[in-house]
């Protein structure tokens, strides 16, 4: 057992102090009771003495009735009536006194009652001594003698009762005297013990207080060392009240050395002054209210504030804690963190803008592929063990190939060229493609193609892209003689593709580092290029850079520069420059001041926004074109929902009628063809419905509401009840969260994922679908999405189906992408694309993982 820990424990001293207090109270109580008992015993002895005195008076009273002088006075004096009354009144007073003294003693009270009767008889007998109606003297004398005998008998009886009362009081006197002697001897011992215990408690308390005082001194020294070495401002304030008891200011009681480091204030000079006197900016910024709220509510307050001291802007994170009769302020300097955040925010905004430009370019490229009449194919190299290209994989092909070869792009993607187009190995096209990749050259060639007993000529351009080649094919059968025009068109196409590639890789941003004191600058290579120079072509400075400022913008530039120098701050602004070649460009700049190697420097970025400004007018025109495009999309929806489905419904109607009437007349081959026609019509109907569902998913998010995903799951299970029973599937789900979303879209998402798991089940075992939900931080969300929440719900749909190869984990979410032949599993290839669009519509992310034969997992992240 660790006795030292017990000995030094505050709890141990608390228990010992409590026990000492209890013992002291107990001893004091006993001493008090002893003193009270002794006092009571003394009072009882005194009471017995009073009773003795009263009985003595009674003895004297009734003894007087036995004296001849008293009797003669009653018989022979003319004042006998007054003497008798006085004697009787004296007896009454004595009896009343005795009755009051023995009222707490029932036996004495009873004797006293008997004695009162005897005294009354005695008074009557004394009164009867004088019989005036007896005339003869002898008779009178005989009567008086007889009356005296009666009086003597009464006196004897009174004396007997008096002796009994004296005996009783004697017994009580002896008993009370013994009690008094006992109490008198025990009281000093108790008082001595009480004094000893008090002294012991005092000594122990003194030792404990002294030891605590030593520890407090050590703690104070330790605290002073901590406060002297910490990087945080630590101050202690006590409130100042007005007549209405409102806090109007605080007195500075303590301030550490960091006040000197950050604010240039000496701690000793601050002590005793008021907070608003030393830090007047607290009132204007509203942060003074935080101090008052902390003191009034006796609760911690945490806030960030910006402070301007000595022409320097600093950020502090302050924690106010109620302490004793005031408040303790701990302020941490977070200026570097805030500046880094601001710089990061600026870079992020620029990066987002560039990403939007890249997305627009990609969308433009996709629209070009759809609108042009050329066939565009991208092929990926397949190399053998020696690193030589022996085949190509078809990665991309646009829809324009279908009218030429009859192939559907989705069906030939990811297949080898040797399987789909084996003739390229005979016509020399394969060698052209290999040469393009190996030599990094753009090759143009013309190839013939036999179709419907007619030779078609196609002009082909092959451009290397990565370890593959992009092939652009154009039908030039009717333009064979116009070769010059064909070359020109091909060159324009190459230039356009080059511009698109450069737009993705070049952000048109330069950076600089300017030393204010020495007026020297360090420019990035791209900054030099923006100015029209090769990197490091000249020594840069602010004066040198002014030579590039457009004369009309020079005054604005100087004003912004002076504001930055005076306040050591910088804000984003746009101005024009004139390059070495005389070209006028619009540039946007921003920067931050910081201390580096004892010097004040500005670090910043410059972006060439000439194209953005010139594109402002073009944006307005593009908006008009976008409105027209949206109208065309709405028209497409009407066509798809009515005009395309109307002939399809008629086809299905007549298929049904032919099946009912002519089914038995079909040959075996005819039945096969008829079934293919029927299945194709059904697949076309499903395809149109899914396309409509995909196109109608609204991304405006104006009708978001609180949705319980448990209700969504119940509704989907109810809709799929027959499919679940037929497959004997088991669905196990965690408690799902509530989200902000669109109910029918969430229902469609859950239905597609569960139906997929049931469709692609393992035929050898019953389907089992597990739905798990946990909350994760935003940093755990994969993918490049715009994070709008600090936390996300991670919902996982896990099944034990046939799974798929992980390399197809992204392909399966594309429209019309299927991993199996339509003869193996039904479907249109749009279901998972719909799932992806719904999740993205809810600011989320979805991806899939799987292994062949071991099931799949579809993982969804939705904002919490």
TrEMBL record:
Record domain PAS: where: 524-568
Q: What is its EC number?
A: 2.7.13.3
Report the residue ranges that make up the PAC domain in this protein.
571-621
The reaction(s) annotated as catalysed by this protein in its Swiss-Prot or TrEMBL entry are:
ATP + protein L-histidine = ADP + protein N-phospho-L-histidine
Kindly list the GO molecular function terms attached to this UniProt entry.
phosphorelay sensor kinase activity
SMART domains from the entry? Answer: HATPase_c, HisKA
UniProt keyword Kinase, yes or no: yes
Domain of life from the UniProt record: Bacteria
Domain named Histidine kinase is located at 639-864
The portions of this protein that span the membrane are 186-207
Q: Which UniProt keywords apply?
A: Kinase, Membrane, Phosphoprotein, Transferase, Transmembrane, Transmembrane helix
List, alphabetically, the InterPro entries matched.
HATPase_C_sf, HATPase_dom, His_kinase_dom, HisK_dim/P_dom, HisK_dim/P_sf, PAS, PAS-assoc_C, PAS-like_dom_sf
Record's protein name: histidine kinase
